[in-house]
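User: I want to check something. If I give you two sequences, will you return the structure for each one separately, not as a complex?

Assistant: Yes, each is folded on its own. Here is the first sequence with its structure:
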Amino acid sequence: MPKMKSNRSLMKRIKVTGTGKVKYIHAYKGHHAPYKTPKQSRQLRRAGMLDRTDYKRIKFMIVK
């Protein structure tokens, strides 16, 4: 039986923290920056934490 492979496109976009939470980088910050408010640009800079309800959905994609 072949090895289980991780979804590489997902693995480039997330990091799993030491406590098992999933950290991701926000979308929508690359283009049209002048049209975004300063508050929006500032909040998009921070990393986001994936909600626990999504863990089940991506669990099989991050098999190591």
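And separately, the second sequence with its own structure:
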Amino acid sequence: MVQERTLPKFDIASVQITKAEGLMLYEDMVLGRSFEDKCAEMYYRGKMFGFVHLYNGQEAVSTGVIRAMRQGEDFVSSTYRDHVHALSAGVPAREVMAELFGKATGCSKGRGGSMHMFSAEHGLLGGYAFVAEGIPVASGAAFQSKYRREVLGDPNADQVTACFFGDGAANNGQFFETLNMAALWKLPIIFVVENNKWAIGMAHERATSQPEIYKKASVFNMVGVEVDGMDVLAVRSVAQEAVARARAGEGPTLIEALTYRFRGHSLADPDELRTKAEKEFWFARDPIKNLAAYLLEQNLASEAELKAIDQKIQEVIEEAVKFAESSPEPDPSELYRFIFAEDE
């Protein structure tokens, strides 16, 4: 079994959350989990092709960070595990599902598929298949926000960018080079490391000389934070602080969220490298079950309300599948469209 780091403690008593906020967080995580479960079903039924990387277990990170931002105004850069980031950013489930089906109604018009979700309307900068590829792209988005505000004098240019990547990317040169520039220029960006302990089949502790990634922020004179990535309230708390810091012009933050994927690296992965004991350790920390228990304990929700959300999401997912199945394939006449910029 891979050695487990002690999950950072979070003062739950310090949380001030309304019923509406609690139900919003719960619904967003249930949407992500249910969507991914349906993706697995559709993949094995031959409705999806290529590599499909699911997000099960990591929902607290996507929800905690993205839902602490302004939907449709701030920017989100993802990885090849991008479906749930897209959903949290506000991309409709039907458009994400249609994209996975390769249909013209998908958020990338059927051209991106599982690993390349994109939506300009929702500030989703894209999913990136190459490890660490999205880090400099996200920093470019953060730079233009700062430039527009400080050089062009646009008072509305206070957007914050969240850049998601895995623990494997933290050993990549783009990580170090870009964090250095972001710190020097005080870019309004949050670097979010989703440390799910495995880079495909490589255990994180075997691949890096400093397993505690958040400590790498110190060499850039940047704020580095470690958080329990299975606790959406903890993630949301550190994300809110990082967003406020970035929007105030105080520079970037590196957040390391300790999380775990409940499925293999992709749906083609037999997942034989991880031990049963390790999986059970993390399954017991299911972020959705934990939030549901908290909401019930704090009288912020009833069993009936949570079940109603579960049912609502199932209907959303089923509608998304029907929409995707009935949507048209991209027209062959548009094969070369979107390769080059077009005149408006």
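Because they were folded independently, the notes below concern the second chain alone. Residues 135 and 163 are 6 Å apart (CA to CA). The longest helix spans residues 19-44.
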